Amino acid sequence: MVLSFPYAAASKQAPEARTEEPSGRASSLVRVAIFELDPVDRIAVAAVGQPGQRQFFLLASGSGRQLTLTCEKSQIQALIVRLNRMMEAQGIAAAENARATSGMLPGEPEWQVGEMGLGYHEARRMFVLVASQAAAAGRAQGASDSDEGAAADDDTPSVRFWLSHEQVVAFSKQAETVLTAGRPLCPRCGLPMDPAGHPCPVSNGARPIF
Q1: In this structure, which of 8, 32, 65, 205 has its CB flanked by the most CB atoms within 10 Å?
Q2: pTM for the full model?
Q3: C-alpha closest to that of 93 among 179, 165, 178, 161
């Protein structure tokens, strides 16, 4: 299985490997290097706040628990693009309709997503989404200065989500619906517009950005 965009920690274990939770299930994922949701029961994107100031979350349930990870809008946008390309490569038709709400509500976030990776397991015919925790600025600095810091970075918590074709189709459309529910885009420059308007660069002689 090859990841479709860079994810440094993905080579720590083979795709078939399993990571078991320690006895007395930990309340936080930071105690487990790689946490598996295999398979995922439900997965969705949620956004909280007013358009232009929304906080985005990646939600998933499986293995008897629900996870909430904080992420950036740009990460979800990049993930949707990659999912659609991989679905096309596998001959999977995109969904025409999907609900913007999944029935899942954000809980207390485990951590902020730093990187995402996406792969496809041919033998199992499943997609594998990998999300890793964002490295703290201080720890990233230490990792470059000492071997001890580098070793700590190797233990960055990650989650692997195993998704069926049907789940990927529904998730891709649901996430796209959530993203487009924010601020409308300016038809001239492609930038988001606030209710009071926005400084359109095209009006100032610049080219459209899309």
Answers
A1: 32
A2: 0.68
A3: 165
State the Cα–Cα distance between residues 84 and 25, nearest whole angstrom.
35
Q: What are the tens digits of pLDDT across the range 153-176?
A: 557 889 999 999 999 999 998 998
- DSSP H or E run through 88: helix 73-89
CATH class of 30-179: alpha beta
> Among positive and negative, which fits the CA dihedral 74, 75, 80, 85?
positive
Structure confidence by residue, pLDDT tens digits, 124-154: 999 999 999 988 643 544 444 544 444 445 5
Mapped onto helix, strand or coil, the DSSP state of residue 29 is helix
Sign of CA dihedral 188, 194, 195, 198: negative
- Do 184 and 194 meet the contact criterion of CB atoms below 8 Å apart? no
DSSP 163-198: E-HHHHHHHHHHHHHHHTTSSPBPTTT--B-BTTB-
Residues 6+ apart with CB under 8 A from 180: none
Nearest of 58, 102, 103, 83 to residue 165 by alpha carbon:
83
Residue 56's φ and ψ, nearest 5 degrees, are -105, 145
User: Would you say 77 and 58 are in contact if contact means Cβ atoms under 8 Å apart?
Assistant: no
